[in-house]
């Protein structure tokens, strides 16, 4: 069973409930697949699930999946597995904070709808690039070995 955890969102402590079994299985699968695709990649590191990441002096988040740059340890890709009973912090609040921190990549993994929203950071903030479902494939050009068929990620 997972444990509750804390995040600091714009100076406000947010106690997050422990994720449920489906959430944890999706998180585990995603970590395994990203980790396997990191062979030979030296410019980024995959952190353990829900590692604490300082975005600013008043904001510390714990994404379900985090890739940081090897040189600076700056967050480069975050994935949030949305919990239906606690979705507002991920889908609204944290997305805004990631945007303010100029996050290059964000994946919003939503088990409620079995889809993944892919955002790319740009000069005007985070832009929704794709909403992937069923037979579509989640990939990342900067992780050339990474591919995940969406149906496999959500299969139970």
* Global mean pLDDT: 94
Number of strands: 12
Total helical elements: 3
Low-confidence stretches: none
CATH topology value = tt1808, chain A
Q: What is the C-alpha radius of gyration, as a whole number of Å? A: 15 Å
Distance between the termini: 18 Å
Specify the overall morphology: globular
Topology as a string of helices (H) and strands (E): EEHEEEEEHEEEEEH
- Structural class category: alpha+beta
State the major sheet: 6 strands, mixed
Helical proportion? 10-25%
Residue share in β-strands: 35-45%
Order of adjacent strands in the largest pleated sheet: 3-6-7-8-9-10
Give the CATH architecture.
Alpha-Beta Complex
- CATH class descriptor: Alpha Beta
CATH superfamily: tt1808, chain A
Describe the structure.
- This protein is α+β, with helices and mostly antiparallel strands.
- It has a single domain, classed as tt1808, chain A, CATH 3.90.1570.
- 23% of the residues lie in helices and 42% in strands.
- The protein has three helices and twelve strands.
- The protein has helices at 21-37, 87-100, 150-154, and strands at residues 5-9, 12-16, 44-46, 53-56, 59-61, 65-69, 75-81, 105-110, 115-122, 125-133, 137-140, 143-149.
- The strands form four sheets. It has a six-stranded mixed beta sheet with strand order 3-6-7-8-9-10. A two-stranded antiparallel ribbon has the order 1-2.
- A hairpin with a 5-residue loop joins strand 6 (65-69) and strand 7 (75-81).
- The longest helix has 17 residues, at 21-37.
- It starts with a strand and ends with a helix.
């Amino acid at each position: 069973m997972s444990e509750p955890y804390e995040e600091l969102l714009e100076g406000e402590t947010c106690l997050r409930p422990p994720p449920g079994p489906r959430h944890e299985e999706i998180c585990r699968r995603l970590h395994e697949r990203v980790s396997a695709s990191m062979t030979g990649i030296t410019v980024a590191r995959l952190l353990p699930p829900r590692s604490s990441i300082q975005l600013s002096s008043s904001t510390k988040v714990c994404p379900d999946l985090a890739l940081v740059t090897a040189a600076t340890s700056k967050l480069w890709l975050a994935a949030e597995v949305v919990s239906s009973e606690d979705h507002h912090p991920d889908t609204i609040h944290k997305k805004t904070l990631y945007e303010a921190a100029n996050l290059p990549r964000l994946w919003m993994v939503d088990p409620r709808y079995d889809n993944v929203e892919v955002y790319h950071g740009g000069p005007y903030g985070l832009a929704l690039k794709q909403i992937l479902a069923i037979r579509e494939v989640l990939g990342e050009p900067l992780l050339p070995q990474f591919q995940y068929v969406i149906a496999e990620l959500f299969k139970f």
